[in-house]
User: Fold tRNA pseudouridine synthase A from Candidatus Walczuchella monophlebidarum.
Amino acid sequence: MRYFIELSFNGTKYHGWQIQKTGISVEEVLENCLSYLLKMPVNIIGAGRTDSGVHAKQFFAHFDYPYSLPPRFRQKLNSFLPKDIKVYNIYLMQPKAHARFSALCRTYEYFISLGKSPFFKEFSWQWLSNPPDIAKMNQAAMILKRYEDFSTFCKSHSNNKTSFCKIEYSYWKYKKGLLCFQITSNRFLRNMVRSIVGTLIRVGIGKIDSKDFCQIVESKNSQMAGCSVPAKGLFLKSVSYPNDIFL
Assistant:
């Protein structure tokens, strides 16, 4: 039987979602708890990988287990998980449902705190200079939907089969002292969102204009992109799936 787990996590202490040799990951912690509670080895597959320090408001992972889950299993699982990981739901799925490959789209948010803030510093990039021009950044952000190849914004030496993505939404908003960039795509490359944000910031502070931004995207050269912004401001906001894979 195939199950989907819907969860969220604070990624501050973790080396991303995927199991790493260099440090603890969210996947490792969740897998260990499931294996202990179900009294058998459990392998889980996530909706994607997140970089070290990146957070998730909504994340999905699937695992196989031959029986119905014990009563109140979600509550018991949460009691074993650390406070920075929470499971919201566990769904019984169609046998071929896949947390990664069945996903239709994913949405990320990046937060920039305008000025010093003791409340936002853990979950946003603090911007202490003059605010970037949000109108100019949105003009450039809209350009992203024209393109499919995002090699420019992919981390060097990443093992990607393709650098093609379909961006559906890309927009900056102002929220009570925070700049929030939201982007939706069918898939994302490694470090892609943080690199896009870093390049759009260059537009916002007048270092480059929209024409330059187009040339950077078309260059397919990661050396042309802006600096990758800090991981702590990045959240996976949501993952969408077709309804027919849920039982």
